[in-house]
Amino acid sequence: MKTLFTALTGVSLASVALASAAPAAAQQAEPAADDKIETAEEIVVKGTIAYRNRSEGAEPELVYDQDFFQRFEPLTAGDALKRVPSVTFLSDVIESDGARLRGLDPGYTQILINGEKVPGTNADRSFFLDRIPAELVKQVEIVRSSSARRTGDAVAGTLNIVLRDGYQLDGGYIRGGGLLFDDGKVKPSVGAVFGTQVGPGRLLVGANLQGRYNPKQKFSIRFANAEDANGDPTNVPEFDNREDQSDVRDGTDYALNASYSIDTETTDVEISGFWVHTDRLETERSFEYDDLTAINGSVRAGGNLLTDNSNINDILQYNYSLAGKVSHEWAAGETKLKAGFAKFIDNQFETENEIDFDRSAPRFTGERFDTRIVDQEFSLGFEHKVPVSDGIDVAVGGFYQDKDRDTNIIEAARQRFNLPTALHASYDQFAATPDSNIGAYTGWAPIPGGFSTIEEQRKDLYALIEGKSGAVKWEVGLRWENTDVAIRDLTPGGLSIDTDYSHLLPSASAKIEVGNGRITVSGARTVRRPRFDDASPILLEEELGDNDFLGNPLLKPESAWGADLGYEHRLGRTGVIGVNVFYRSITDLIEIANTGVPGAADDPTGDRTWVYQPRNTGDGQVYGIEFDVSTSLGFLGLPDTGIFGNLSLLESDITDELGERRFNGQSNIVYNFGFIQDIPSFGAAFGATYRKQGAAIDRLVAEEVRTTYGADLEIFVEKRIGKAFTIRAVGSNLLDGAKAEVFDKYNLTAEQRTGTFDEYELESETAGPVFQVMARLAF
Q1: Distance from C-alpha of 187 to C-alpha of 179, rounded to nearest angstrom
Q2: How far from 523 is each of 148, 155, 562, CA to CA, in Å?
């Protein structure tokens, strides 16, 4: 059943808003190659293998151009990030939405578009990347530490997605192809991009249509806790039921973008816009049986079908943004101004209908939820930089953001009635559906907290000094951040809260050239603001097993002190190998704690339940080591062979009321390696990449989950024809990716402490391979 947790989450491109503001890499000197306008032919026909770039700024940063990913034809920015160090996902199979840098929850990772803050519409302010078409991406930057120039929401680090603009493309190309899924479904993928000189500036326009499809099969076995002769639990699993589920996500993403830029000797101006529409239907059908192997339904007395469930969610999302910036060099230095507006509209219409056969007369239950979330944001920023001596600059700046979020989630009165008893003998779950029994929905009312508004205003100021002295580049800065939040629960009897908090965030970075290598060292203080649902003063009964959940408007942000130390070494003309160690000490962790107040289902003479509330209750630490390599094998006499790989060993420590654990959802290892073989004489290439991430464990109130993923293998073959045409065939998920979860579920906290489970569940989710053929033609 949908709750406020679901209510306040969502997927948004709402602020690709600042999609054309200065990229993070532009805040420092970029390699000269980045200033070159590529022709369409150079983008379409790749004659050489691309490798990881060496960034030139003081911060510890890895840069991967779009050329590095393109040959494997990622569909989205999220798909591309599967190939960079320390990024994990806990998404469904063959989906990449919430990026988890260093394995931490997406709320710990700052996502930027062209170097600017992206407001996510999820409850933890995170931003999902699976709606940004990979075709629009110029490069991906991993910024391991923080800078005063950026907002401090970067405990784990920053992922900056740099989009193409008119100064990266001259000419145009069209792209077209299709994707074939293992159930025979074919989805289209078409697009076009064009850049040219128009008047005094350059114009870039692009359009993209991407068919999205994900057919998954899920299988669950549930066990109850067996009882002894006295009725006491034995902690021995006893088979209870089996569930077979199909989960199909079928939709289309439409995207349009445009930018116009004018660059002169003293003044640069840019205006951009971005629009995305997602039309998606998620269909789940579940059959629950009382036998491990039976597939028969209620076609005879004593049939094995317990329930037939149909869950359908119709999703319509709209994202659009406008942004502008201007920079001017004058006698007093360089001044930059920028402004942006973004709006995200999320409409979802969800039904869940079920027939329960495990009773004397089959019973039908129908539920309906309608969701409308509107999230809009206006932002302003400025920076003034002035040289104070040879090689040293001082910069001061500010940032203002006004964010409004309106939530409207209503549910209809539940429909429940008995069906004819004869249905036990005649029902065929493979031909019939519970949806045929539904009547008109009436009695609409908001769910708890379903009518609400959130207004958030941010006011930031910063100052920094940066410079270069011999072999050392450095930056030292200080940022002050102030946030005012107003949450209004508009449901009858709802509460309203206003809160504010401020932080001082120092940061420092240095990069030291040492022969063919360089050392990077950095330190910074960062923050993570409370989730909206944690801070909302709303009581949700039996949200955590049989326990209740109450939001806490007095929560403070978590804060962290962090350090990174790395070394990278140049290999030949294009290659690089690197190692980095990191540490984060996080204080004021937000964890769920028992208030000591009895819950709504409390029985003082028997089973005790409680009201739980998020609180700033403790400290934690995160640490690890990261390796990466990207190079040709020219030193072995194989200049047309390129290899790449990365390995991250991740660890963390945290103590909650149940004892010690890792941070929820953090995999202890993630690695990726592959190769590309170019065949210049034949105008062809082929390659493969292999990826694996370790197990993740979540411990929540009333539930503990262990999640594992199978490995992912991708292979591509490419043929170049002339100077303007390329065709590629790509196979992904070739190992039939699987996600396995083990659930320990508890009714009461006391039972969780002793490990006395109520339900034990094994769930697996699988999806078959995906094949695509994609062609590009330059013009």
Answers
A1: 5
A2: 11, 11, 6
